[in-house]
Amino acid sequence: GSFLSDSSSLSGMSAISNFSTKTFITEESSLVLETLEDGRHHHYLIPIQVAKRGRFKKKGTKLHVYMDHIFIAQHMKVGSSCSACKRGIPLRMGKQAYVCRDCGIITHKPCHIKVETHCLQTSLPSMELKCYTEDLKK
């Protein structure tokens, strides 16, 4: 099928939205998509080429894995500061920071790959990671 859909007009709008609200994609951390299927969580490792496209057929929570930290995008309140660069996280619309859901450290999105300590409370070993593929026949 054609890769343009009726939602393609939305992608043009997101280009002008603030950088901080977008998913920060880097080769240095792994992007994992967490989905809920049949009442169970599934975890898919997203290849960098697919991650850069930004849209996935499956719906789920994007997890950014680096140094065993499992970062998720969250909206921060006033007074939060980045664990990596120590600067404040500006208050903005949208989810402007990444938070490790296991140990709770907070970083700016681009700073999550500057974290120097491994997550000691990581739940990563309990995840069954599958490689994400988009079946184009469907």
Describe this protein's structure:
By secondary structure, the chain is mostly beta strands. Helix content is 9%, strand content 27%. A 7-stranded mixed β-sheet has the order 6-5-4-3-1-2-7. A hairpin with a 5-residue loop joins strand 5 (97-100) and strand 6.
Main attributes of the structure:
138 residues, mainly beta, seven-stranded mixed sheet, 7 strands, 9% helix, 27% strand, globular
Gross geometry? globular
* Overall radius of gyration: 16 Å
- Per DSSP E runs of 2 or more residues, the count of β-strands stands at 7
Derived structural class = mainly beta
The helix content, as a percent range, equals: under 10%
Q: Give the neighbour order of strands across the main sheet.
A: 6-5-4-3-1-2-7
The ordered string of helix (H) and strand (E) elements is HEEHEEEEE
Largest sheet entry: 7 strands, mixed
Proportion of residues in extended strands: 25-35%
Rounded to the nearest angstrom, the distance between the terminal CA atoms is 9 Å
Oligomer: single chain
Low-confidence stretches: 1-20
Discrete helix count: 2
